[in-house]
Each structure stands twice: as C-alpha cells, then as structure tokens.
C-alpha cells in the first residue's frame, strides 16, 4: 500500500481498531459519478429510441435503469481502484474514499453488487446481447482502462474511451438484440469526441495528473503536443458527426446542427492550438471542455428529438 492509501484506510478506523463508516447516502450517490451516469443514460436512451424496433415501454424503462446502475457501478469501482490517485489530486481528493468517509472495502462491495445486479436485470428484462455488452463495458472500464491503461500510457483515454462510447450500442441492442450500423456510428462519434474533451480537461488540470504520476498526454508528451492532438481528433470528429444524416437516421435538421456545432468545436480547437501563452491556453482549454459537453449533448438531443417527433407524427407507433 502507498502512504496515501494507508492514510485513507486509517481515517475509517476507530482508536480501538474496528473500521467505522462515516458515509452518508450522498456519499454512496457520489460513488456513482452522477454526471457521467447521466450522460450514459442519455446516450443509451438515444440508441434505444433510434433502433428500428422498440421493446415494450416497461422493458425499456427497466433496461435504462439497469444501464444507469451499471454505469454507476463502473464509476464506483473506478473510485475504489483509484483511491490512492484521487487522494493526491485537488479535483478528486474530497471524494468519499480519499476524504475518509468510506472504506475501500465498502465501495468495492457496493460496486460489485450493483454491477452484478445490473447485468442480470438487463439480461432478464431485455436480452443477453445487451447484458453482455453492459458487462463488457464495466469490465473494460475497470480492468483495461482503470487498472492498466490509465497508469501506463498517454493513450489511455483514446483506447479507454471505447467504454464511454458503448452506451448507445447497448441501448440499440436492448431493442434489437444486435449491433446496427446506426449504433456503430453513434459509437464512433463518442469515441472521437472523448480525446479532445478529456485532453482539454487534462491541460488545465495537468499539475494534478503530474502530482499523481498519471501519464495523461500533457504530462507525458507536453502541452503543445496535446493541443495538436486535440485539433487532429476534432478534425476527425466533425465529419463523422454528420454520419447520422448521411446514413439516413438523422434528418436535415440534425445535419445543420452538427455542422454549426462542429464549426464551433473546430474554432475552439484551432484557437487552443494557436495559443502560446500558458494562461491563455488554460482558459481556451476550459472553454473547449465546456463546449464539448454542450456539443455532444446537443447532437444526441437533436437525434432523440427528431425520433420522438417522427413517432408522434406516425401516431405513436411505439
């Protein structure tokens, strides 16, 4: 154990030896990474709604809840594994485990129960293809990304981003029992969006990652190389994001929004790439990070809205 981890464990112990949990319901909720979970639910719902067929509404609701719980389980298990790193970073040191309000063992048990329950529930309610994809997503995020890639390579977020890109594929599989071209395109959009989004955050939080010895790209390759890579991935993302319109499951309205939002994303990436003053670069990175959230939310929101309008006009085929 590291000294940081020892301190975390000792905070949860009384003077006489037994461990005492100071966790509140809010701490357990924080373990689920609710912001990340909400994005997972949103993109999974979009994947489900854009599928060529739909399950019964009750099955759909149960499935989305199971996906949400699975996403929360992944976040919880990530916090269990990364407690030593979180204790060293200003952004994460107040999380329940490094702050000493919860033991790692409690978080591990909570995460495993949720992960198992979510996969079994999704398999029984929908189908085992969707359940297998959810299980793979949780496994990939914890073992491949958290345990291996995050601490070993500056490409951690590129490869590990596959886990965050799978929710719309799972949502589609809930409805169809298979992976469709539409789902694959939505996967590609999130996959290419993840590096510029995450590296923008890493730029203005690079001191945190350096302190924790996490080889994020700004730490391992430098800030200039990171800005260049953000621009490269943004250039790849913008045309791929037009895929829904090109392949017919997004309308012209979506195409127009994707063009406008893509232009905004590209403009911010270019501005960041050209910055030479570090303070100005950090500000540009913060702006890009904030806009990237709006970008992805808007794209999937328009796709979802178009499908809802189409269903209403078709007199509620679902």
Explained architecture:
This protein has two domains: 24-179, UbiA prenyltransferase (Tetracycline Repressor, domain 2), CATH 1.10.357; 180-318. Helices cover 75% and strands 0% of the residues. The protein has helices at residues 3-11, 25-31, 34-49, 57-81, 83-86, 104-125, 128-146, 156-165, 167-176, 181-204, 206-211, 217-220, 223-240, 243-246, 252-274, 278-313. The termini are far apart.
Short key terms for the protein model shown above:
single chain, 318 residues, mainly alpha, Tetracycline Repressor, domain 2, 2 domains, 0% strand, flat
Low-confidence stretches: 1-18
Termini separation (Å)? 54 Å
Question: Using DSSP, what is the number of strands?
Answer: 0
Radius of gyration: 20 Å
Q: Per CATH, what is the topology of the largest domain? A: Tetracycline Repressor, domain 2
Strand fraction equals under 5%
Instruction: Please report the number of helical segments.
Output: 16
**Average pLDDT reading:** 92
The name of the CATH architecture of the largest domain is Orthogonal Bundle
Which term fits the overall shape? flat
- Helices and strands, in order, run as HHHHHHHHHHHHHHHH
Number of domains: 2
């Amino acid at each position: 154990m590291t000294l940081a981890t020892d301190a975390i464990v000792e905070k949860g112990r009384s003077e006489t030896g037994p461990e005492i949990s100071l966790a509140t319901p809010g701490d357990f909720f924080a373990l689920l990474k609710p912001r990340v979970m909400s994005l997972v639910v949103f993109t999974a719902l979009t994947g489900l709604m854009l599928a060529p067929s739909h399950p019964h509404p009750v099955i759909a609701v149960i499935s989305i809840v199971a996906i949400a719980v699975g996403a929360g389980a992944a976040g919880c298990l990530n916090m269990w594994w990364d407690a030593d790193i979180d204790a060293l970073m200003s952004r994460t040191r107040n999380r329940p485990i490094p702050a000493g309000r919860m033991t790692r063992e409690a978080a591990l048990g909570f995460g495993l129960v949720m992960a198992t329950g979510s996969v079994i529930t999704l398999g029984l309610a929908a189908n085992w293809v969707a359940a297998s994809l959810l299980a793979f997503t949780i496994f990939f995020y914890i073992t491949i990304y958290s345990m291996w890639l995050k601490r070993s390579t500056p490409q951690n977020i590129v490869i590990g981003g596959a886990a965050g890109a799978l929710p719309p594929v799972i949502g589609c599989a809930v409805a169809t029992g298979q992976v469709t071209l539409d789902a694959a395109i939505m996967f590609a959009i999130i996959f290419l969006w993840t590096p510029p989004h995450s590296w923008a955050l890493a730029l203005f939080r690079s001191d945190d990652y350096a302190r924790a010895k996490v080889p994020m790209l700004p730490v391992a390759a430098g800030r200039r190389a990171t800005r260049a890579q953000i621009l490269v991935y943004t250039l790849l993302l913008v045309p791929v994001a037009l895929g829904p319109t090109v392949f017919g499951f997004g309308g012209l309205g979506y195409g127009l929004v994707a063009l406008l939002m893509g232009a905004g994303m590209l403009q911010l990436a270019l501005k960041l790439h050209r910055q030479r003053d570090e303070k100005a670069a950090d500000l540009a990175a913060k702006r890009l990070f904030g806009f990237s959230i709006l970008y992805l939310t808007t794209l999937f929101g328009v796709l979802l809205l178009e499908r809802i309008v189409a269903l209403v006009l078709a007199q509620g085929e679902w």
